[in-house]
Design brief:
Number of helices: 7
Shape: elongated
Strand order of the largest sheet: 1-2-3-4
Structural class: alpha+beta
Order of helices and strands: HHHEEEEHHHH
Number of strands: 4
Strand content: 15-25%
Amino acid sequence: MLQHYEHCLSNLRQNEAKLDVTASQFVPFTYLDADNIEKDAAEVFTPTVFALVKKKIGCINNYAICEILDGGERVTYVISAKSNNAWKFCVYCDFTESMLDKISCSCCKLERDGIPCGHIFYVFKILKVERIPQCCVCKRWTMNAKSAFPPIKKSNMYDSCHSLDKYRELCNLSHEASFKAAQSNESYVHMKGCSQ
């Protein structure tokens, strides 16, 4: 069971490493006539998350503004779908000195999934925002997510004793030797004689 667990963990780490390499060396494709906010999203988010964000950006043409409620530092945009005016969502924008400080939507997608919803992107279009504000960028979905974690281990909670490390190394070597020995009868007999 321990070997299976280590094998699964090794596969997860290997897949994560491949995705890290892809994310660090690959900027998702955007058309030349794409909005500046889409181009910015391609540089900020990982390729997988960018695909989700691009769908939300692509659906902004499906929305219409119903009402704007100006409350000074907080402006509320009431958004509805063009196809169905019954569904309405409120996008709340908090401004500090004419700069967008915080934004949220009544659909709560940003809080739930960590990516802005189409309603928020529609308000960005109205406000002519060209870069995704930091309040809409969840650190874990960005290209720099791993920079938050130090590359060195700060805890020795999971350190094993030296004999366990030696045991693991010998297990790995013995598995490799057994596999090679099983490929020929002479090596098989020799290996079997060594273990007795």
